[in-house]
Design a protein that fits this description.
- The complex is a heterodimer.
- Chain A has one domain.
- Helix content of chain A is 69%, strand content 0%.
- By secondary structure, chain B is mostly helical.
- Chain B starts with 5 loop residues before the first helix and ends with a helix.
- At the A-B interface, helix 4 and helix 7 of A face helix 1 of B.
């Protein structure tokens, strides 16, 4: 009876789905980009500012970018740093954060960089949840 | 090089982390602001309480 008018809407919705992991990947690579793709400009900007600020503050405090995993803690550090996406790769290429940690403030900075990566992963997963409809708005 | 005090570092950390928590953990802007503020107060409050606990233990 009233089922046929819904068909174009369903077909349109499935066509709109596209590659659902794009906001997740974009959000991981560039902080805030996942939300920008979904038209959430304000949230994306705030997330980008928060992650970038933490990353830059970490480098400013002479924090270390983890480069290799000698033990399990280093491995966790690398995993956290990798969460920053392109910021990590640019930092590695530019040689930022390559000095050994010698002061307390530099240790804070190392933690800031790791947490920036972890927060960026949370933001990217949020963009993915918005894309799939798991999060309503 | 940036040389923040320990408390300034806590403030900066709490501000950035609670911004992300607020946006990602709630649905509406009003709830986001409330949850972000809640997280910020908890970060700062727990840092102050734990600092006093460690100070008293060390005495």
């Amino acid at each position: 009876m009233a089922t046929t008018p819904n068909k174009p809407a369903v077909a349109g919705k499935s066509a709109q789905q596209g590659f659902v992991y794009l906001p997740l990947i974009a959000g991981w690579l560039v902080p805030g980009a996942g939300h920008f793709l979904l038209g959430k400009w304000g949230r994306g900007a705030l997330l980008a500012v928060a992650v970038l600020t933490m990353f830059i503050l970490g480098l400013g405090m002479q924090g270390k970018l983890y480069t290799s995993a000698q033990d399990i803690l280093d491995l966790l550090g690398v995993a956290g740093d990798l969460g920053s996406g392109i910021l990590y790769f640019v930092g590695r290429a530019a040689g930022w954060g390559s000095q050994p940690v010698q002061t307390t403030v530099a240790d804070y900075g190392t933690k800031f960089i790791v947490v920036a990566g972890l927060l960026n992963i949370i933001a990217a997963v949020d963009a993915h949840n918005l894309r799939t409809g798991r999060k309503s708005s | 090089m940036i040389h923040p005090s320990h408390f300034a570092a806590v403030l900066l950390f709490a501000l950035c982390a609670s911004t992300v928590f607020g946006i990602t953990m709630r649905d509406t802007p009003r709830k986001m602001v409330r949850y972000g503020a809640y997280c910020f107060v908890l970060f700062i409050g727990s840092a102050i309480v734990l600092s006093w606990v460690m100070f008293l233990i060390a005495r």
